[in-house]
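Supplementary notes for students who missed Thursday's class. We covered one full example, reproduced here. Read the sequence, then the structure, then the short commentary at the end.
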Amino acid sequence: MPLDVILLVLFGALLHATWNAIVKAGSDKSLDAALISAGGAVSALPFLAFLPLPQASAWPFIGASAILQFAYFQLVAAAYRAGDIGLVYPLMRGCAPLLIAATSGFILKENLSGGALAGTMTICAGVLTLALEARRGSSRAVMLSLANACVIASYTYVDGIGARLSGNAVSYTLWMSLLPPVLLFSWAVSQRGTIAVARHVRCNWWRGLIGGAGSIASYGLALWAMTKAPVATVAALRETAILFALVISITVFKEKASVWRYVAGVVIAIGGLVLKLA
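Structure (token representation):
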């Protein structure tokens, strides 16, 4: 992978860990997840007029992605209600590239080089090391994290293909961001009522705007990278966000970290280096 692609994916990984921390820190994780989704859409709107429309063949993928993103944000909120970010985030994010690496040859006909496969598997091994902590965490948190890993792998495929068909990965990303908040807030209003949702938005809009801008920038960088490198390799490198999440979990949330979290962090870093050298 070219160095510029690697650096931009790593920057996107930092942004991704940061907006997840915003959700974790919030008092109402479901509504905060919806706010961040809406913040991403608001951040996208000013740029739409300056970009070409995605090709017609990409629009079914935009629709499918919106449904998967709705499921993703719901599971993010549920997982953070159930467990620590230091356990939930690595399992949720790290199992997805393992699924992609195992299936991309069949689905996308992409054959990874030996070095790229080694780097991908090393990162996944580091993530799965955290499963050794599962017995200390909530079983519900673990199950929700694994379920979301399947959703992440699914929308990664959908958007990886859609971005390539669209003719412009940035345009695809911005248009893709518009529908999920509509679904999320419609669901929230149906469950909580308009007054409760409006009150939360009025008090926490800034969280959504900051987190949403980071979310859309992070994912846009990843989709752009997927037009330059194999999807499985980009997906694995993006999960170095786990390193940032581990640092945030310890320094910001003061979560207790066992030795396995540190071991996992080192293994993930080694995997990122292997990808660079591949």
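Commentary. The chain has a mean pLDDT of 83. The longest helix spans residues 194-226. If anything here is unclear, bring it to office hours.
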